[in-house]
Amino acid sequence: MTTPTLSPHDTQETIAAIARLMHHAADRTARQAATKSPRSELHVLGLGMHVAAAEAAMLVPADLDPYWPQPTQADPLELLRIAERLARTVPVNDETAGFSQVVVSLTDLLREAGS
Length: 115
Fold this sequence. Notes:
4 helices, single chain, elongated, mainly alpha
């Protein structure tokens, strides 16, 4: 299977979509954690998601919104899986410097979430 080649604008749009998915996964996880005990592991997972979403958002150009529109999926784990699939399409080059840390964070979050 070959990875599609993205234009620089498509790559920026993809990174914005990844940041958006991670941000909303973090919000949904935080809401779930609020209904659990104060010592729920969901609090730590949600915080990790917020940090990773912020890492991705910092790579998004100012003309793209890394937070909106809100994705329709409700399950935080599904949002992370979609973000991970999108991350596979982002090329490794000078324009995406710093994105590898987002991939590492995303992989760690998926592992911690038990996917």
